[in-house]
Amino acid sequence: MKRNYNILILMLLLAFASCSFTTKTFSDPNKDKLLIQAITYVLERGHFDPKEINDEFSIEVYSDYLEQIDPLKQYFYESDIKEFEHYKTEIDDQLKALDISFFNLTHERLMQRIEEAKVIYKEVLDTPFDYSVDEVFNSDYEALDFVSSKKEMKERWRQRLKYTNLANYDDLINAQESADENDDVEKKSLEEIEVASRKETLKTIDIYYNDYIDDMERKDWFVVFINAITQEFDPHTTYFAPEDKEVFNQGMSGKLEGIGARLQKRMDNIKIVELISGGPAWRGKELEVGDIIQKVRQEDEKEAVSIIGMRIDDAIKLIKGPKGTNVYLTVKKVDGTIEVIKITRDIVELEETHAKSSIVTKNDKRFGVINLPKFYADFEDYQKLNAASDVKKEIERLKEEGMEGLVLDLRGNGGGSLQTVVEMAGLFIEQGPIVQVRSTDEPKEVLKDTDKSIVWDGPLVILVNEFSASASEILAAAMQDYKRAIVIGSKQTYGKGTVQSFFDLNRMVRNYKDGDLGALKVTRQKYYRINGGSVQLEGVKSDVIVPDRYSFMDIGEKDQENPLGWDEIDAAEFSFWEGYFDYDTTIKKSIERMKDNSQLKLIEENAKWVKTRMDEKQHPLNYSKYKSQLDLNEEEAKQFDEISNYQTNLTFESLPYEKRLFEKDTVLKDKRIRWHESLSKDVYMEEALNVLEDLKMSYSIKKVATVKD
Fold this sequence. Notes:
- By secondary structure, the protein is an alpha+beta fold.
């Protein structure tokens, strides 16, 4: 029996939308003005919660735009800001009049100040740094004022470059101290090391400006301005220039060439926010979420390039590269230590983002584990590839191995196809509503599972964390509302309760022949739990809350700029799952176990310690104090070594069909061995299996994969 949904091409994260609501013709020959006209038109008429473009909106765009083009306050002067402030409440009027004089003024001034900065940093790096002086560098740029004179500007650059140079200085000292006596290494004095370190810093900054900043054209800066406008509506509404749209489409195809990591810029730092399953960084085991990349060196270069303060697009260009080439990343670990990590670039294999399963025996009971990194689907041929069908297939295989309970691991799953998540939820219930979707000024739509067959009606646990978002949140919320599964994980999931659509701006403009206009990703809908509540901001709260190393980091939707708010609508009609009579009792038992778990207590202490390190804004520029702080961080970090040494007595193994594949595919075998080793050290998986065992004790599995009348 086919499932009947009206969502065959609807995606949770992305949907390519027609511009059917547009009736206006855009024909301004000036491309910049044409973009402003088309984008503001779509935003005002197509956004789920359109903001009024008024003085308040203007003030926010003004502040955010200046922060984006000069986040370190190293270019503009107080006098520039006073001049710019004339436009603080005028940007809204300019947008309506297709006037871009504010952008023109700030862009011209920025170009001037960048040229001045090139002179300043060269002068600063031409003068020795005295690391015996007791002074402190403040990296809290938001709290800094713009400088009022060239003297103050040079001092600001001096302090930042002195701090940046400290890492080079320390590296050279360490290299000399660790060199073997037999090595042909010329011993240098501290003065000579200081000179060499400044030369390295100068070289990296020269590369940054010559190869990246100077390559940026006016149109690239204009994209920054446009996105300062679009992201006032919400953090997921974004303009994609033609070249960015092409890169995005390549990413959607599943072909990710590089190190296999998703990066995010926070102030002047480039941070790892996700490791793509199966990618080079994931396989290497050394990089982890929360690490900050400070420098990048290519295999054919001697010197690393600092990416501190670099635009994220420019940093990505350095980090990416052809398959088979090596890149060396200088990384500040989440525990404060510094490491140089070698990664061989590769193409992330698509199948590694697909569902995979394992079987584990615990106290003579066999349980299944399915890991799902994303809710994928091929929308050109949905029947050929989608996560729901793959998970169903894995469940059937696990049942053949005598599975008595199932753990569905959605940790780190950022979402994907809405159709897929609705179908997947239907594998675990007879039929009923799964999620509610609402557009502005339109009746809500209740998306339902209408197929009465149940593929798995036994005990079910869903694992989540702070990175479980969108489709993951829909599935976890639905199973929680039905009391069909017990959700174990972080205090809450990511909290993204919105749906985006893509608008091809070229379709909106008639007779425009001056190139590609790009596309606009717009938040068009919000989705709601079947109980009526939104997951926006609040996410899905776990039934059993367990701390992890990200517990105190600002990584959720609520921590983004301008997120849409939480609200609720009427609940859909649904009935609780009738199979589990010990649902609440099992949760209480799990919570009690977690209170006494020493591993989780250590993880929580580590998370607090990492948060403290990340919040540090005052950095000593005295080398002795700098070195002492590094040594202290390394010493303190040792108390958390036991976290990685944790071991359960559980053994996970692949299913027979995979074992047959291992005979010819040794790479796949190695990947599964590593995954199973990770599971055997996973305290969260251990508790998930404890919960399944509790459920199993008082629950007799009914016939599965049957159709109910």
